[in-house]
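Box 3.1 — From sequence to structure: Ribosomal RNA adenine methylase transferase N-terminal domain-containing protein
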Amino acid sequence: MKIDEEKLFYNKPVKIVSNLPYNIGTALFVRWMTGPWAPWWSQLILMFQREVAERIIAKPGSKAYGRLSILSQWRAKARIIFPVPARAFTPAPKVDSAIIEIISTQPLDPLVEQKTLETITEHAFGQRRKMLRASLRPLTADSISLLKAADIDPTARAEEIDIAGFCRIARQWQFMRDGG
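Predicted structure (token representation):
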């Protein structure tokens, strides 16, 4: 966690293949996904707990869909290559694992600032069962207008909105926040 990978691998093509320690795997993954873009890496092949891998590749409408899904799929292609059952290890852990592949791409919407998208998804998924008009109210007193301007139903819940929808919300909030 203390290594500055970007400085270490400056101007070198990097592919990471790793069985990350589960206690820091998500933190490392988030750091690699939120750094400057295009990233210093081109491909990640990583093993995670199955539940984390499922959150990374989840689609709208699923229970696993959330901030990690949006963060990974906004500017990368992610897929599970294959599952790894607990019995593949000695001693066997209490959880199954999965190996995923992440390939960096251009952001789905390059006009959206990463921090803005993170803030929007943090509030949207902070209380999953709330409608977006309520969960985004701390960001703007007029969350209904924000959502309507982004062509999102204010009564929708976060898990119903695809990544393009979150990009529209983020772009509209940037516009409103910056005095547009």
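Summary of the box: The chain has two domains: 5-104, 114-177.
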